[in-house]
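Good morning,

Both structures are done.
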Amino acid sequence: MLKTGRTHLQDAVPITLGQEFSGYAANIEHAADGVAAAAKQLLELNLGATALGTGLNAGDDYTEHAVDRLKAYTDQPVRPAANRFRVTQSMGDVLAFSAALRRLAVEVNKVASDLRLLSSGPRAGLAEIQLPAVQPGSSIMPGKVNPSVPEMVNQVCFQVYGCDSTILAASDAGQLELNVMMPVIAWNGIHATRILTNAMRVLHDRCVAETRADEEQCRVLLDRSTAVATALSPYIGYAATAEIAKTSVKTGRPIRDLVRERKLLPDRQLDEILSPTVMTSPGIPGHKKAAASSSRAARPRSKKQ
C-alpha cells in the first residue's frame, strides 16, 4: 500500500507501508540478535573464584560441581570462566549485555513513537494507521483513541536507559581485584530485561497485531505531496524541479499539471516518471521500463521459438 515517506518530519518520496514496517522489523531483529550474542558472555561464571580469583578455600572440585548443578537447574550451557581474575575484576560482560539491551530498547522506542505519529488524528494528524482502542479514551474528550500501549512502551524504554546508565556507572566503579557494585548491577540488569520483555510482548499482542492501515488516507496524503517531483530531477534538473515543487506548494496545483503547462516532458513519459509505485523501487523512474524492455529483447530465443 502506497504512502508518503517522510524525512525531517517533512514529505518525502513515496514508500509502501510494508517497506516502512519491514524496516521496523529488521531493526528490532538485528538488535535482538545483539542481545542474544551478548548474553552468551554471561554464561562464563566465576564460581569458585572466591574473593580475588585464586579459588582459595573453595576446594579442588567445587567449581566443577557447582557449575554442573547450575547447568542442570537452569538448562543453560554455563561454564567456568577461562580466566577467573577477569570476571572477578570486571563487570564488562554484564555491561556489554546492558548496552545491547539498551540498543534494543532504542529500536523498540522508535517503533512506539512512530506508531504514535502515524496514528495521530483522526482529523488533525496523519491518521495513516488506526491503533486498537485499549481504554475508553480521554477523560474529557470522548471518542479519542489514545496510543496508550505505545506510550507505555516509551516509558519502559526510558527506564531501561536509566538501568543501563546505572550499570555503566557501577561497572566503572570497580577497583583492583573486585567490583563490589555487583548487587546494583544485577538488580538493574534483571529489571531492565524483565520490563522490556513484557513491554515488547504487550506492544505486539495489544497494539501491532491489531493495527489497521487507512488506505484512503494514505492515498489522499500521497496525492497532496509535492515530494514526487524528486523523480523529475534527472530529466529537467534540480533547479527546475525545485521551482515546480515550490509553485505547487504555493498554488496547490498538481506537479503533473505544472510540468505539462511548461511543456517540459511528453505526457507519456511524464506518467512513467511520476508513477508513485515505480518510485518505491531502485533506479531512475522512466528508465526502468525501457531498461526492462531492452533486457527482454536481448535474451536469446530458444529453439522452440
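Second structure follows.
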Amino acid sequence: MQAQSEGEGHVMLKPVDYNQRQHQGYAAGRAMPEESRAVWAAALARRAPARRPLSVLDLGSGTGRLTPMLAETFGGPVWGVEPHEQMRAQAEAAPHPETVTYLDGRAEAIPLEDGSCDLIVMFLSLHHVRERAAAAREIRRVLVPDGRVLIRSTFSDRMPEIDWHAWFEGAREAEMLMFPTTGDVEAMFAPVGLEPVAIDVVREKYADTMTDYAARMRLKSISTFEHLDAAAIAAGMLRMEAAVAAEPDRAVYGDGDLMVLG
C-alpha cells in the first residue's frame, strides 16, 4: 500500500488512473439498482436549492451513472465533468437526455463559466482530488452565490462497518487513508466561504441479492482494489464466496454520508 504526502499536509494513496484498468468493468461493477437511484434522487433534491430548474455540475461523473438522473430530477442543464477519457467515453455512449453534456475536466480546472451552477454534486469523487485548495476555489467560482455543494463520500472519521472490508485484508486500512475526514472537508472549503450545514445518512440498497453483489465485486471496480496486493484479493474472494454461499438471496444494504455545504 503506497501512501504519498501531499503539499497541503494530508496523506493520500497513489492516484488511481481509471484509463488503465478501472474503466473496464466500472459501469457493470458499480451499477446502481433503480431503488437506490430513486433514494439518492430524493436525498439530493431535499438538500438542493428549492427553485427549479437547476443547472447542475456532476463533478467526477465517471461513466455517467448518476448524470442523467440529475437532469431528470432538477430539470436544467447538467454538465458531467470527468478527467478520464475512457470513463467519459462510456458516459457519452450511454443514453442520456439532450440537456446532459460531458466535458473533459477535473475539480482543479472546471471548464465552465463563473457562476454557472446552482448545484454541484460530488458522488464518491472527492477522495480522488489531489489539490484540494485549488479545487475549492474552482468549485466556489462556478457556483452561484446561494448555490449548494452536495458531497457523497465516506469520511474516515465516520467509517461505517462494511461487509466486504471483512473479506479483503487491508481494505479498511486503505480506505482510512483514501477518504478525508469531515474536518478535512471543512478545512478545504472554509477559505472560499463554504461550510458544512448538515450531514445526512442515506440508506440504500447495493444489490438485490448477495449473489448479485458478489458478481459485481468480482469485477474489482472499487478503486480500493488498486491498493491491495494480489494475495489479499485472492484470499478475499474466497471469503466472499463463502459468505455468499451462506446467504445467497439476502439483499445488501448500506449507509452513505451526504455532506451539505453552503
